[in-house]
Design a protein that fits this description.
It is built from four helices and seven strands, in the order αββββαβαββα. The chain is α+β, with helices and mostly antiparallel strands. It is globular, with a radius of gyration of 17 Å.
């Protein structure tokens, strides 16, 4: 997936609440990888797609396994990218969240990327993706890495999602969002956002 296109400006959308409600109606929390399931409660936006990022060392059907790269593994590692794609509300809290996402992705710009992929723009305005993936594989959903490269990507992925969790927890602690399942306007009123 390519998120190397520059991030678009936030725009007002008369369909935002409708699109958000439609996304939440079909929202399957169990369908999200367990390590990032709690990030589905991001305020001021709705999650379109996300993936923890998987490291596959052996051929077979376990392409979504959550196991780390084994210490004794010496061969190539297939990495299915870690990413979060969302639609952000054009509001003061949405702009704050967008600013935080931009800062988080500045940790290592050769592996952590932020932008507005063209294929998500078809889903609506103000769509963004943050991903952890080597630049050389930016057009793919996966990359074949050496063990050392895989360990570096894993470290950055873990740091990125931990920092994102901190942003979300801060927003929730300030009363600017709520866990999945609670509905509200979330336009700076302190009401729940639903994610």
């Amino acid at each position: 997936m390519e998120s190397f296109a520059a991030p678009v400006d936030l725009v007002e959308s008369a369909r935002y609440e409708h699109d958000r409600k439609a996304a939440l109606t079909g929202f399957d929390l169990d369908g999200i990888d367990a390590p990032i399931r709690d990030l589905a409660r991001l305020p001021h936006c709705f999650t379109m797609q996300c993936c923890w990022g998987h490291f596959v060392c052996r051929p077979g059907p376990r392409s979504h396994a959550l196991e780390p790269v084994p210490e004794d593994h010496v061969g190539p590692v297939r990495h299915r990218i870690a990413y979060l794609a969302l639609c952000v509300e054009n509001s003061a809290p949405g702009r704050r969240l967008l600013g935080a996402l931009r800062q988080l992705t500045e940790t290592d710009t050769s592996l952590v990327h932020f932008g507005s992929p063209g294929w998500f723009a078809k889903s609506g305005p103000s769509t963004y993706a943050a991903q952890v993936e080597p630049v050389l594989s930016r057009l793919e959903d996966e990359a074949v890495l050496t063990r050392d490269e895989a360990l570096l990507v894993k470290c950055l992925r873990d740091r990125f999602f931990a920092a994102l969790r901190g942003v979300v927890d801060g927003e929730l602690a300030a009363g600017r969002g709520s866990p999945v399942g609670e509905r509200g306007t979330d336009r700076g009123t302190g009401e729940g956002s639903g994610e």
